[in-house]
Amino acid sequence: MTPEAPRPAPAKRRDAYFDNAKYLAIVLVAVAHAWEPVMDGSRATRAAYMLVYTFHMPAFIIISGYFSRSFQARPDQLKRLVSGVVVPYVVFEVAYTLFKRWADEDPHYPFSMNDPIYLTWFLIALFVWRLSTPLWRSVKWPLAVALALAAVGTLTPGMGQSLDLQRILQFLPFFVLGLSLRPEHFQLLRRREVRLLALPVLAGAAVFTYWVAPDVRMGWFYRSTSAVELDAPWWAGPLMTLGLFGCALLLTAAFLAWVPRRRTWFTVLGAGTICGYLLHGFLVKSLDYLGLVAQFPWLAEPAGVIVVTLAAAAAVTLLCTPPVRSALRVVTEPELSWAFRRDVTRLSSGRAGAASSRTSR
Fold first, then answer.
1. From residue 208, how far is each of 212, 244, 247, 257, 310 by CA, in Å?
2. Among 62, 162, 197, 240, fewest CB within 10 Å belongs to which?
3. What does DSSP assign to residue 259?
């Protein structure tokens, strides 16, 4: 009897935990963005905004770093980096510029590939971070070095004017931390005592942010400017870098501790968070460009803030669904085989099964 040919190993399933985390994080991103036009005059909304802004992007970036651990700058990986990061950056940089020209009645607003508009900064930052992965995987004390670079960034006025380098440096420690994490670190968050401890941590953070909300400048949380540009003494930059990193790490751990491990109704949406991220900005910017809050002042009242919150969460949920991801794949996950050599395309295709099981954003 002729022995059967060995069957190929089945593709590894996506990890439900990380898809759940990505979806919940992108909901927080969208909701926080939607609060921006309606939080003036509301201490509670400003405090909630500050609390969420402390950790929502750090959580997203840590996960991005964790799933970039295997990046070695192989030709097939560079191809995916171009198709999954560079192409969406160019497309949405143009799209947001055109949208601002039309909706904000600013027809002369310039196109600029080196000055990311609104939320496109994350794509160019991810491109730089991922390219630097082999370096961070090679040096001693990578997190300490990344924190030092972030602190130095706060001492350099004007850095954010080119490719948003200020944000690239100030958020860099979270990406490097993600590169340094291993599965067992996330296993620790499953412990019952960690989950219980997360509740008073979140409650204490909420009380603290409500207390300091009127006095803290939000620019610190955006990480897009230096200390001097925030009218602060130079030493405040490195101090806030370390302080905010510690706060973000603590709140991210508390957040991740309560992310469901099992498959839920929203697990499938974790694969489409790049679509939710890139598209929800058009809805949020419409509130600003079209002056909807001025036209409907009730949106800034407590009931209106609740409506805005629910609408933002529902909208980004719809934008993460498989049909939207499929429709947008031509610009978020283009094949681009025509632009690369055949050997690179074959190598990329050969690894596609394995890559499909990983979350790279």
1. 6, 14, 11, 21, 25
2. 162
3. S
Q: Please state the pTM of the whole predicted model.
A: 0.91
Q: Tell me the pLDDT of the chain averaged across its residues.
A: 90
CA–CA distance, 246 with 83 (Å, rounded to integer)? 34
The tokens for 221 are: 């949380």
The CA distance from 154 to 49, in Å, is: 22
Taking CA 171 as the corner, what is the angle to CA 168 and CA 176, rounded to the nearest 5 degrees?
A: 100
Name, in order, each residue with C-beta under 8 angstroms of 321's C-beta and a sequence gap of 6 or more.
269, 272
CB 157 within 8 A of CB 41: no
- Nearest residue to 165 (alpha-carbon basis) of 178, 176, 177, 154: 154
Residue pointed to by tokens 């196109």: 111
Q: What is the DSSP letter of 2?
A: P
Beta carbons of 46 and 213 less than 8 angstroms apart = yes
pLDDT, tens only, 154-212: 999 988 778 899 999 999 999 999 999 999 999 999 899 999 999 999 999 999 999 99
Q: How many CB atoms neighbour CB 208 within 10 A?
A: 14
Report the alpha-carbon distance of residue 354 to residue 24 in Å, rounded: 25
- Number of C-beta neighbours around residue 340 at 10 A: 18
Using the Cα atoms of residue 268, residue 175, residue 78 and residue 95 in order, give the sign of their dihedral.
Answer: positive
Count the Cβ atoms, other than its own, within 10 Å of residue 329: 13
For the chain, the maximum distance between any two Cα atoms, rounded to a whole number of angstroms, is 81
Domain coordinates in residue numbering, the chain? 16-355
